[in-house]
Amino acid sequence: MGLVARWYGHGLADGTPLDATTAGPGDTPFDTATAGAAHVDATGLHPPRIRLDQQPSSPAQLVWSANTLGTLQSYAVRTYLQMSAWPSAGAPLAQAYGSGNTALRWRIDINLAGLLRLRDAGNNVIATAATALPPGKELRSEVVIDGTDALVTVHAGDDESEPLVSLAGSVGAVADAIRFGSPNAAPTSPALYFAAPAVADTAVPIGARSHAASGTWTADAALTGTPHARHHATATWEADTGWAATPHARHDASADWAIEAGLTIDTGVSPLYVQAGGEWRPADVRHMTGGSWHLT
């Protein structure tokens, strides 16, 4: 799986207006951003994120189009989202378009009762969640499209266990644009936040977002394999001369290994990272006990 578009906003100042050029290092700028609707926000689970304010008599959207995505047949879309309260009417959250960003392929929205819905290419509701999503909480939506088969899941933040919501149905095939926000010309949603949106070119969930606790992670020039090992740009990681294999194991010659900020001893999440789908994610550390592997 490879990410064909992603936006993390590292280094962008709180309150920065977001347009088609606003991006952090390694980000994919949006091809279209409704003028005045989006601003960088320094809060959330994976700051910075994007606050998207509905505009009276105007859509409020962030769009990756064919210029960035090409044509997608089997693909995945991820975004973290949070609403301060449920909308007074159905609020579109994400959707895919085809035929040059003109024809709806699918849409997910949320109604005034907090129920997530999946819509098909005719904008018909084809699946509705049985339970409401929690308001005011940061959630992670994953939309996986395999031809015309759609699977939508929503998790609580970075949680990788059973989803809060799972919807499935048949939708339109072949997309060339992914839109976040609302194409409707009416203010339908309270404060709406998006974080770490990404699109992959295979029908596999992208998964939880990872981030370096401090600074920028860069490729180690001494390692040419894929995925690369990484070192922190503000320090020097030296090869452990006791390891002759390629790639070398690495250690910090002058400091301890820092645990990612926000991870505590009982999270079960490792401060080690692996590359998956074009981004760095925490790696589970496992040990063998009684013939089985267990999470350390």
Please characterize this protein's 3D structure.
The chain is mainly β. The protein contains one helix and 23 strands. It has one helix spanning 66-69, and strands at residues 3-6, 32-33, 38-41, 49-52, 60-64, 74-83, 91-98, 103-110, 116-119, 125-128, 139-146, 149-156, 165-170, 177-182, 192-200, 217-219, 230-232, 237-239, 250-252, 273-276, 279-282, 286-289, 292-295. A hairpin with a 5-residue loop joins strand 9 and strand 10 (125-128). The longest helix is centred in the first third of the chain and has 4 residues, at 66-69. Mean pLDDT is 79; it is low at 211-271.
Secondary structure topology:
Blueprint (H helix, E strand, L loop, with lengths): L2 E4 L25 E2 L4 E4 L7 E4 L7 E5 L1 H4 L4 E10 L7 E8 L4 E8 L5 E4 L5 E4 L10 E8 L2 E8 L8 E6 L6 E6 L9 E9 L16 E3 L10 E3 L4 E3 L10 E3 L20 E4 L2 E4 L3 E4 L2 E4 L1
Antiparallel strand pairs: 1-15, 2-5, 3-4, 4-15, 5-14, 6-11, 6-15, 7-8, 7-14, 8-9, 9-10, 11-12, 12-13, 16-17, 18-19, 20-21, 22-23
